[in-house]
Structure prediction request, 758 residues.
Amino acid sequence: MSPTHFERAAEATPPMLAKKIRGLSDRAIAWIFVAPTIFLLLAINIFPLIWTIRLSFTNFRVNRPNAEVQFVGLDNYRRILSDSDIWLTMQTTAHFLIWTILLQVLIGFSLAYLINKKFRGNDLWTTIIVFPMMLSPAVVGNFWTFLYQPQIGLFNYVVGFLTHTDPSSFSMIGDVNLAPWAIVIVDTWMWTPFVMLICLAGLRSIPGSIYEAAECDRASKWRQFWTITLPMVLPFLMLAVLFRGIENFKMFDLVVQLTGGGPGSITELTSINLKREAFEKWRTGYSSAYAVILFVTVFGLASIYVKALNKVKER
Amino acid sequence: MKKKLFNSAAAIGLLFGISAFGATGAQAADLTLCWAAWDPANALVELSKDFEAKSGNKMKFEFVPWPNFADRMLNELNSGGKLCDLLIGDSQWIGGAAENKQYVKLNDFFDKNGISMKDFIPATVTGYAEWPKNTPNYWALPAFGDVVGWTYRKDWFAKPELQAEFKKKYNRDLAVPKSLDELKDIATFFQGRDIDGKKVYGAAIYTERGSEGITMGAMNALYNFGFQYDNPAKPYELEGFVNSEGAVKGLEFYKSLYDCCTPPGASDWYMSQNIDAYKSGQVAMQMNFAFIWPGVNADANVGGDKSGYFPMPAGPGGHFAQLGGQGISVVANSAHQEEALAYIKWFAQKDVQSKWWTLGGYSALSSVVNDPSFATSQPYAQTFLDSMAIVKDFWAEPSYASLMQATQKRFHDYVVAGKGTAKEAMDGLVADWTKVFKDEGKM
Prediction:
């Protein structure tokens, strides 16, 4: 019998090295394999996080390399949490988050429910629906500014046509009342397919036998939906909400392209505000504290949510 | 044998040739010049070919679109990057770049090479080169004079039926406005009017939120209604100057101009959007920096006799216009400072500056702009001269970005979003600026 690859590799290993490897425990070998990843993780994620926390207690400004860096204790945190403008951006973010998630879940689930039915052209429709999420957010933001253009924009034209109003009589991104909805609409257009795909995976994981059993028990479609479909898709739906929640909490590019945070500060999300503090005003210490607060908020909320998700899955 | 000898000689010759070329290459340097991506940058590329031919240095260019220009370049300076050897940075960066030693101080170089700041338009020296202001400490050579002014549709203004209607309504000729009130009357007159079968609007003004747009626009109105950055007798005293009655009225005026006379959707417009609106025949007038004028003049749709130019009209509190433009500086981190300084020396020459003007760059050299032929050399040349005589600039403090962002927010909140009153906006601005200056230890 010819030797296997492993045997050949063992024979080819120099005796000194083979001796050394033989002396290592399984745990040590595992560490050798994992070490590069851990090193990268520490260098790219953990170190910057610790450094950011450290900076958050100082008055450091990256554009003042010669200035003395002073320890300011919790001063940055106190200033941020008592700043009414920052609370306003938090409210704006919450509005954006709640409405986008609500709409994306409703529409995404409905689309998944429809796509899950067998019909002609099913695959084609799935591809068409999924198309927006394949685009870059910056590109989407840019071309929606044209769609929202009051004089030539398709969106205004369609709304004008349907409501018999002058298309140039309203400006989606220039009006304080409409702009928050303008960003919600675009995000919903772009990311509903993502929610749909996750829901579709959930729907397709439900065994057909359960529905057959329900049919035998003469359960109505409505009853089947409430007692079989929805409970079994719920963990998938919650996962989609988690992903979209985290993504939209740090939403930046799409909104910057669409409104730049305006008009005024009506659509200024926390991420945009943070970017302005960090890279336009160059208040590095202050913006580090701001980033830490946002990190703790997202991490805390996500942890609570994951616990709830696990409970749902256990049922 | 003969052939072998010939081959060997050729090989040695080639080797020497390569070595010699290598040696020349080592002497010449690749210089990178960073600036904004706009029409004048293209003119500079053309102009710099002469420098390349003369010096043997190869010029590379890094041009960044205006909305990202400050972000990108300040990031470069603050991170100690080596991308740029020469930087044509915005006038307001001079304080920070000087205090943080990001630019090379040019006084000794100017003295050694006989470059005198007295040879340049005084406003550009103060605006683009000096820090601290009004002291002979130079960190840049004035490179591109620029100022906010107006472009208007001369052909529309000349239409007899519009002339007659305007005269009947306002009891004066439809002509270049001499005051801000007249400007608003004209904008109102054109708003929503049908011209050549197309609905047109009064004026395109700066309303951009993200970088500096609305500030660069609204400040023109504020200056001309009496706004001052601080107490001229006591620096950094803001109360009563920034939020003076005139300043409040100036901001109210700008909002009224935005409300009455801009095209729908003009809520986040800056240079390029205003150009687009004007060139596509949407507006009768556009506010914009003078750099656009060569492009307008050459435009197939609105160029030539169809367009005219006028400086920012006066207001009840004075006659000023927002300064634009930039100076050219040597980046302290550059590995090619000698070559970069040689570029500045070359650029400061009169014949180069004259060519700069002919290519579409706005020279700040007095001998060029004061030349008797200058005012008639282009249809916009006289307007440029008139405008440069009335300039005023935003803060150039090291904390300019914080001051700018606060202004952007307050102005956009009031003018575009209609939040609160002008008085509240200006009082808020005093509070914001005070906070910044206190943090800086200047108050």
Summary: Residues 2-27 of chain B form the longest helix (26 residues). The longest strand of chain B covers residues 30-36. Chain B is about 50% helix and 15% strand.
